[in-house]
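During the reporting period the student researcher (J.K.) took over the structure-prediction task from the postdoctoral fellow and processed the backlog of single-chain submissions. One of the processed entries is reproduced below for the supervisory committee.
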Amino acid sequence: MTAEPPLAAEIAPAHRFDVHRLERRLRASIAGFGDDMFVQQFQGGASNPTFLLTTQTPNGPVRYVLRKQPPGPLLASAHQVDREYRIMAALKATDIPVPVMRHLCEDPEVIGTKFYVMDFLEGRVFRDARLPGLAPTERTAVYDELNVTLAKLHKVDYEAVGLGDFGRAGGYYERQLSRWTKQYRGAETDEIPAMERLIAALPARIPADDAVTIAHGDYRLENTLFHPTEPRLIAVLDWELATIGHPLADLAYNAFLWRSDNAAWGTLDGVDLKASGIPTEAEYVAAYCRRTGRTEISDWNFYMAFAIFRLASISQGVYRRVLSGTVASERDPANRAPHLAQTALSILES
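J.K. obtained the following structure tokens:
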């Protein structure tokens, strides 16, 4: 299948919680919540565990989605579901498609961690970036939707929607390099020479461009939801890493798809782009520039290398959680950090 609804199954043992206590909390907090709540866990992903809640109402079943922090010790500044809730609630007043937010709970006594609940949306998640089974015109439309939505996000007046204090304006890459170096150190298992060279080299290569926008932080095809039958993007998901940052961080991370060789993350390896209807990296970047008023992007190698460095740090954190047994998914249990770091270093030094 080229796309599928998220798969939900029994809750993983490591992520179980008191369902009855949760139901009491939600019935008191969400109007018309319903009764006889049934909980399943969505499969895939390795960050914030996500669950499908189905309740019974006089008008039939109603479904919600719950996202929570994972159990166990957490890396500093990771898994901030409260920030994820806040930004989606703020964006509901814009033209960025997001689910309706219903409830944020910051009391760990309810299910053991912070969590939030939002409406469930019926749609398709494209897990294979090559989009097998779609016609070339549909593939073109899917990638155009991905591109135009990112451009729209970077045009949002973040202060006007109440996100003026969601992050610091300017100095994004300095802060990000510090953050992801610390995250990497906190999850380090073995020395990775390429990571050490990146940590030493990247700060000196930060471009002068200090643009400021909302930055999603994990913007890629698999983190969006498309209409059940149309090539139309209906929701941007997974805002855990969102902040006020640099727009080209999102663009480069998104464009890594054209250089990735990891099918689990997303890859276009082996695709005849012209015949498939999928744009080239250069075409995708040029379309974004037209939509945002940019004439060119200098230092593209830095932006791409940083995006991959950050992904390597994230991957190291995931691998550390795999070793500790707190990750439910085993889709890609190997440590991808060394390979990603070498890829980033090669791009930076090319």
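The committee noted the following: The first strand starts at residue 8 and ends at 9.
J.K. will present the remaining backlog at the next meeting.
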